[in-house]
Amino acid sequence: MNDYARIEKAMAYMVAHAAAQPQLETVAAHVHLSAFHFQRLFCRYVGISPKRFLQALTLERGKQLMQSSSSQLDIAHTLGLSGGSRLYDHFVQLEAVTPGEYKRQGEGVEVAYGIHETPLGSMFVAVTPRGICRMGFVDATSAEELLARLAKQWPQSALHYRPEATGYAVEALFAKPGERAASLSLHVSGTNFQIAVWRALLTIPDGQLASYSRIAQALGTPKSSRAVGNAVGANPIALWIPCHRVIQQSGALGGYRWGVAKKQMVQAWELAYHSMLLAEEEPPANA
What SUPFAM superfamilies is this protein classified in (predicted)? Predict the structure, then answer.
């Protein structure tokens, strides 16, 4: 049996026996390998650990069960988990939301949205009481499509066109640092890895750039540049989560969800704006 066949057989076994939460040694024995060698082989070919794969299977099954059961404890036991806390951990680690938040799908949440003109183009903005949940360029994707994505993200929420409630998210972008609000909150959800990447993007200083590989190294996963790129592309909040600051290792711009021309425009604006602020902070030369 070659390595690909072993991995396929192991994954099929985990799918069929996910409710039993099989141990690493059990799955390894099924494909006639030691636990150590199976772990290395699986990670090499799949890109994640067997434990992570089983967690993902469990999470997806948990999502299905959420539609028909009101008891998180019953769902946890059906999935082969020891209790509701384990189910909670699976959701938070892989989806960055709690089971309750996932099941409610925005029920009871008021989401305001609006479209605002900016020097960089028209922007679609949506906010919840907890913060900004979506921003995107209308000239790259239609407002209707952006609204449809918002509705898909928050299917049970009440969406209201209220540009007076969303304008602050754009105004703060073009305000001088001393004129900005004390803090801005973001309300996003994603996998644990996506959230980690988006947090890393927030640490890139204004007017500076970072490569995908540098972000992967900062996360302690130096071989995950491709996965970092996918997470960057899934960023739901343009500009405030600065995915435009990420480039290829070679110095090439790389892709951008809103188009390469828009990425060039944003980078140029940010560099010029940052340079202007630095110049204003310099003390005047002595006469």
Answer: Homeodomain-like, Methylated DNA-protein cysteine methyltransferase domain, Methylated DNA-protein cysteine methyltransferase, C-terminal domain
